[in-house]
Amino acid sequence: MLDCIFCKIITGQSPSQMVFQDEQVSAFRDIHPVAPTHILIVPNKHIASINDLTPADEPLVGHLFTVARQLAVQEGIEKTGYRLIINTGSHAGQMVFHLHLHLIGGQRVRYPMG
Amino acid sequence: MLDCIFCKIITGQSPSQMVFQDEQVSAFRDIHPVAPTHILIVPNKHIASINDLTPADEPLVGHLFTVARQLAVQEGIEKTGYRLIINTGSHAGQMVFHLHLHLIGGQRVRYPMG
After folding, report:
1. Domains in chain B, number
2. Start-to-end Cα distance in chain B
3. Does residue A85 fall inside a structural domain?
């Protein structure tokens, strides 16, 4: 997608602090971190949101989570804990319409979930 | 798992407001909802947390999310938006050690993510 900032980050056209990349997904630090660890994990393929998933995407979406687990270990937060969030649409405050998983940890989460 | 409340809900030994069930996953309403829609989507197989995932679980974890999308449509919140959360460990406030995805919507989320 020409105008998608995350597509540009994935292909290296826009700068980022990339922490992991394989054929299916990319992971880079959020530019406005809300905690000591705040990483975005995204599919390399452009999918706008959870609303646009098809059953064929299930292994890809699952892969975001095994990569999240691996990054939690890498960041040293797998034992203390971490929150994983995917926001969809305006009520949840989705800002970029390229599906992304937030990995947040390194401190006790400050807020309840609602 | 004998002592797992979610395993008991999945098999019908404990009561719940079940909203969806198939061979892989079950979905039921949270007993302490934080928003008009607050549903927990869980694998039928006992997996304690994201820390316990293996690559073989990727299609199953992805399936939680296509079911979440379907339930968002069913609840009429797919256009207004919704937040999906998986908590792991104490920093994130994981209470039940059977992996569960929170589907939260029906109002603007009140809190940032950290």
Report:
1. 1
2. 32
3. yes
Helix (H, G, I), strand (E, B) or coil at A104: strand
Structural domain contains residue B44: yes
Q: Tell me the torsion sign for CA atoms A8, B66, B69, B37.
A: negative
Distance between CA B21 and CA B39 in Å, rounded? Answer: 13
- The pLDDT tens digits of the residues spanning A6-28 come to 999 999 999 999 999 999 999 99
What radius of gyration, in Å, describes the C-alpha atoms of chain B?
A: 14
- Residue of B23, B47, B50 to mutate for A, most A C-beta atoms under 10 A: B50
Which domain range does residue B26 map to? Answer: 5-105
B91 counts as catalytic: no
The CATH number covering residue A97 comes to 3.30.428.10
Nearest CA in chain A to B36: A114
Q: State whether B58 and A66 contact (CB < 8 Å).
A: yes
Beta bridge partners of B18: B28
- Which of B26, B101, B27, B25 is CA-nearest to residue A68? B101
Residue showing tokens 């994201």:
B50
Q: What is the DSSP letter of A11?
A: T
pLDDT along chain B (114 residues), means of 10: 92 97 98 96 98 98 98 98 96 95 93 73
**Is B37 within 8 Å of B94 (Cβ atoms)?**
no
| Spatial distance between the Cα atoms of B93 and B104, rounded to a whole number of angstroms | 16
Specify if B114 maps to a domain. Answer: no
Q: Could you report the predicted ipTM of this complex, rounded to two decimals?
A: 0.96
A110 within a domain of the structure (yes/no): no
Q: What whole-number distance in Å separates Cα of residue B102 and Cα of residue B27?
A: 10
